[in-house]
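[job 4471] stage=fold_predict status=RUNNING
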Amino acid sequence: MNKWAKWIGIIFFLIAVGFFILQIGSLIVQSHYQAEYIDNRLFYVFNIIMIISLGISLLSLLSLKKMGNVILVTIAFLAIVVNSYLLYQTNQNIKNIISISPDTKQIFSLKKNTNTGEATYYRSYYRILGRPKEALKAPIDTEGDVKWLTDDIAVFTYMDKQENLHQFVGTYGDRKDGLSYYYVGAQMHGQWEGENTAISVNQEGITINRKDYLQLFAWDQIQQYGTLAIVLEYNNEAKWTIALGEDFFFDENTTAPPTGEIILYEASLVNTKAVSLQYKVEASAF
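[job 4471] inference complete, writing structure tokens
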């Protein structure tokens, strides 16, 4: 046997064994910890890689006659066809909405039932695994883009069957020590200004003043996601997301104002520009 063929066979055999262990491990983790692949299609993709690797390994290591090689290739081909069909079929039932953060450290994942439009947000663990964390408040009818406002804040905008816009925010970080919960709105108290935009945060709520748009959102119209972002709603419809910038800092033990920036992002199925704002003065009415 050719020395290179032997080494190629060994390498691909180890690859096949590695993916086999990964597949078995994923099934064990799913049954014990309710964690599964962050994207359902990965199971079948890994199966296909395992089959191809095992096929190459056997062709390289075994001195089969021509008919034996034909039988081996045929079996591998049929196995790949079956897994390709199952991959296609699972994508008809569950649509995976995946987006990777700009720094590639975080994965935003939604799994949408294609029949009902209901979707569940999955929190990623070890990159390829995820656990269901939260169901979206309304079924998805029309999907917008996933917008990363920072490396740890992703905003998904969508429309339900009643043509109401919604925004769901995935957050993956913290702006303090991570040991305690805090209210984003309270951290932003004051007046903020950016490009043709001003935001006032006071006891009454949050006022957005952008070009010809002026509206006050009371605190009961504001929904918080994690400790990094809030969504402003009016008539059961999302209007804006406000997120804490990566350099945002507020020390509640002093009277010093917050530093860094906040980010304003409009709810729209069209990918609109996010606006950065800096703290100016104490909040006042517009």
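[job 4471] summary: Residues 3-93 form one domain.
[job 4471] exit 0
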